[in-house]
Amino acid sequence: MTPSHQTSFRIESTRGDLVESVHPVSVAVTDADGRLLAAAGDPGRLTYWRSAAKPFQAMPLVEDGAADAFGLTPEELALACASHSSERRHLDVAAGFLAKIGCTEDQLACGPHPPLGPAVAEMVLKSGLTLTPLWSNCSGKHAGMLALARHHGWETQGYERAGHPVQRRILEAVLRWSGAAPEDVALAVDGCTVVCFALPLRAMATAYARFVASEEPAAVRLRAAMMGHPDLVAGTGRFCTELMAAWPGGVVAKVGAEGVYSAALVAPGWGITLKVADGDMRVAPVALFAVLRELAARWRGGMPGAGTPLEAPALLERWAEVPIRNTRGELTGRLRPAGTLEWHMPEWRGPQGGAQAQDAPRAETMHARPSREVD
User: Fold this and answer.
1) What's the pTM value of the predicted model, to 2 decimals?
2) How far is Cα 73 from Cα 140, in angstroms, rounded to an integer?
């Protein structure tokens, strides 16, 4: 997309009657064939997927038979895809996961950090607890990587590093599901010490569209785990959890650091990825909710649990505009969406509304390339 075609979708931060700051957002919405259906900003922007890649980092765990070999439960698979809040349930599932695969917490390469859940973070601060790697929001992902290494008989030491067989296998999965070419993917080290991937937003969206459209057993099993246990994917009061709980069976969503969010609507099979330009994590849920509401309005067949396509459950309305308060709890402003998506396909009328997607002119398509291992 050239700059002349870019739309100005953004989140505005207000104070009083003025817009105090503006957070531009790039968005890509695709179908499972990689067709760009809607966009804002730069849908081809290259950025790190961060934790929004976790379902695909967990994919080899199921595809290669490790999940079956260790008897992993849906709860443990959900945690492998999670950025959890270190709530008691999260820690218990992570500890059970490690015990089941014959590993200990000392083998986790991730380090501890303040919990992502505000209530848990406050409890830790007041109690003076010493945090351990199990408390990392990524401990489930790391347990999954250790399980993959043990299943294949690979060395567990260094499983998090580029070049280790675990990371080569995960990169293969990322390439296959996203359709990105190896030369279009950059590697770096994530905050939890493991390899992270930079690829175009459009490729990330395509991966999520394929994730909800695929009938491959691994995809079916992982998305069922995430949608069936949204409390494990994030935590109390967090958007991933509230969104999937409010629209059961209708949406998969996963946050990433630095203002990245990926999601997919099950009914139309649309994948979404957005990036807040300045990386402000407060803004990303507001942006995703605005995008989902616009997409829901376009999908006239509606979504499970959503009422009419133009209505989101009341539980989620607090994400439409998020209040900003001062240290006394007084309202000083709001985070609110502004602008809209640019549509690259005619309005989708859904299963009850006449013209189907195949009736529309074909949009530009990103063809998947065969994946291959990268040294």
Assistant:
1) 0.88
2) 12
